[in-house]
Amino acid sequence: MREYEPEEIERGRLLFAGQTEFRLGVAKLSQLPPEYPLEVAFAGRSNVGKSSLLNALTGRKDIARTSNTPGRTRELNYFELADGAVALVDMPGYGYARATKTLVKAWQSIIMGYLEGRPNLRRVFVLIDSRHGIKQIDLETLDQLDEAAVSYQIVLTKADKIKQSERDAALAATAKAIVRRPAAFPDTIITSSAKGWGIPELRAEIAGMQGQ
Ligand code: GDP
């Protein structure tokens, strides 16, 4: 993870200082809202810590509840910050054992449609549990993003659950896994929602995309 300048951290803090509002859940492409000036999305297998991370980023306590309400787990959930300047898009957690093949296929085509049809979607943050690293199921998502040519960045979660030496190893293993992937952003952000680690940096990363 790179060092961030104090000015970048401050821009990130300011961007997230206001209210974050839940706007809508999108179950089919025709429901997508007009594009926001900047959209960033969050993807990861279920239980990776996505809701906790979104809560930590936005200072809200109930994003988990909003996104995990029955009926919303398979939607793209739109959260809006800074009076609509930025949309945070919570993508459905993948890897549900219960989902049928047909459902998974239907979902993949909606997600592909979303990824390919949103020029202002600047980056997808792909969350990976720092204890487990990138697994086969994650590789499928990375393949999909490479195919759609949507820039993505790995965010390691739950870093408080491992030792410092293991964190360094997790970062090194991640760098190695993505080095030849065309749409992968080279730097990885390591986070702990429980401890607040990496949260200012992730905010700074998003703020840095504004107006570019
Ligand atoms: P989601 O299914 O990806 O939205 O995952 P959740 O945010 O609901 O988190 C799944 C589980 O991991 C919950 O029991 C969380 O309390 C736990 N968890 C999430 N983030 C962290 C973290 O940074 N540190 C620790 N120790 N536990 C976490």
Task: Write a brief structural summary.
The chain is of the alpha/beta class and 212 residues long.
What's the layout of helices and strands?
Layout: H1 6-15, E1 20-26, E2 38-44, H2 50-58, H3 63-68, E3 76-81, E4 86-90, H4 101-116, E5 121-129, H5 136-148, E6 152-157, H6 164-178, E7 189-190, H7 199-207
Parallel strand pairs: 2-4, 2-5, 5-6, 6-7
Antiparallel strand pairs: 1-3, 3-4
Helix pairs in contact: 1-7
Bound molecules: guanosine-5'-diphosphate.
Q: What average pLDDT do the residues reach?
A: 91
Order of helices and strands: HEEHHEEHEHEHEH
The Cα radius of gyration reads: 16 Å
Number of helices: 7
Helicity range: 25-40%
Oligomeric form: single chain
Based on Cα principal axes, name the global outline: globular
Please report the distance between the alpha carbons of the first and last residues.
22 Å
Structure, explained:
It is a single chain. The chain is α/β, with parallel strands linked by helices and 212 residues long. The chain has helices at residues 6-15, 50-58, 63-68, 101-116, 136-148, 164-178, 199-207, and strands at 20-26, 38-44, 76-81, 86-90, 121-129, 152-157, 189-190. Strands 1-3-4-2-5-6-7 form a seven-stranded mixed sheet, with helices on both faces. Helix 1 packs across helix 7. The radius of gyration is 16 Å and the shape is globular. The two termini are 22 Å apart. The mean pLDDT is 91. Guanosine-5'-diphosphate (GDP) is lined by residues 44, 46-52, 64, 93, 157-158, 160-161, 192-194.
